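Quick one, probably user error.
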C-alpha cells in the first residue's frame, strides 16, 4: 500500500498533537486520492481520556490526578479507556480512505489487521508478541498486542468518519514507571480495576535493541512502500487553502 509519512508533526502541545490526528483525518476524507498517511511520534506526557470517561463522576478527580503527576489530561478522538504516554512511548497514527460501511464487522476487521501487523513487527524485533487481551490490562481491547500473554505492549483505537478512518496506537518502548504511577492514580478515581503488572514495554522484552530500532521497524512496516514524505505544516496549509 502506498503511504505518505507525515513528519515534523509534534510540538503543538498534548491537545494540539491530538488535533493533528483529526486534521489528517479531515484531509483524507476531503481528498480520497490521498495515499495512507502515517505518523509516528514521541508524545509529550499525556493522559488521553475517552469522551465516555469524561461523563463519569470521578472524571474531575482523575484529571487532577493526571496533572499532579505531570501529565496533561486531554480528551482523545477515538474510544477506549484512559491511556498514558510520554516521550518513552511511540504513538502511531494511520489514516486511510474509508469506502466501506460504518461499524460492525468492518471495524473489527481493521482492529484485527492492524493488531496482527504490530505483532509481526514486534516478533521481528525478537518479542514473543501475540494478539489478544491480557486479563487485567489497562484500556482492555480484544486486539491488544501482548508479550508472552502476560503484558500489554500495544493498544489501538479508531475513529471513522465519512470518507476516512483513523487508527491510532500507543506503544510503551522504554521506561514504564511514571506511566504506571499515573494510571494507578487515574484509574483509582475512575473506579476502574486493573493490574499494573500487565503494563509492559518493548525494550524490556528484547535484548540489543534501541528505541530507534523500534521506530525504524514501525516506519518500515507501515510506510515502507511510501510514495514520499510530507511535512505537517505543508499538509496544514493545504487544509486551510
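Nope, works fine. Designed sequence:
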Amino acid at each position: 500500500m502506498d503511504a505518505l509519512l507525515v513528519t515534523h508533526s509534534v510540538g503543538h502541545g498534548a491537545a494540539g498533537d491530538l488535533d493533528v490526528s483529526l486534521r489528517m483525518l479531515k484531509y483524507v476524507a476531503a481528498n480520497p486520492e490521498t495515499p495512507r498517511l502515517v505518523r509516528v511520534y514521541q508524545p509529550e506526557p499525556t493522559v488521553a481520556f475517552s469522551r465516555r470517561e469524561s461523563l463519569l463522576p470521578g472524571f474531575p478527580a482523575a484529571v487532577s490526578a493526571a496533572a499532579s503527576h505531570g501529565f496533561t489530561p486531554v480528551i482523545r478522538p477515538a474510544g477506549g479507556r484512559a491511556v498514558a504516554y510520554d516521550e518513552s512511548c511511540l504513538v502511531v497514527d494511520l489514516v486511510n480512505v474509508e469506502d466501506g460501511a460504518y461499524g460492525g464487522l468492518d471495524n473489527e476487521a481493521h482492529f484485527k489487521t492492524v493488531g496482527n501487523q504490530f505483532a509481526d513487527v514486534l516478533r521481528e524485533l525478537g518479542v514473543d508478541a501475540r494478539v489478544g487481551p491480557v486479563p487485567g490490562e489497562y484500556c482492555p481491547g480484544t486486539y491488544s498486542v501482548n508479550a508472552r500473554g502476560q503484558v500489554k505492549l500495544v493498544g489501538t483505537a479508531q475513529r471513522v468518519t465519512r470518507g476516512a478512518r483513523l487508527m491510532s496506537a500507543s506503544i510503551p518502548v522504554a521506561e514504564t514507571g511514571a506511566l504506571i504511577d499515573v494510571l494507578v492514580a487515574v484509574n483509582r478515581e475512575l473506579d476502574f480495576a486493573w493490574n499494573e503488572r500487565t503494563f509492559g514495554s518493548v525494550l524490556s522484552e528484547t535484548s540489543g535493541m534501541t528505541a530507534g530500532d523500534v521506530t525504524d521497524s514501525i516506519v518500515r512496516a507501515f510506510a515502507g512502500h511510501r510514495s514520499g514524505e510530507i511535512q505537517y505544516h505543508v499538509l496544514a496549509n493545504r487544509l486551510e487553502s
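Residues 63 and 133 are 26 Å apart (CA to CA).
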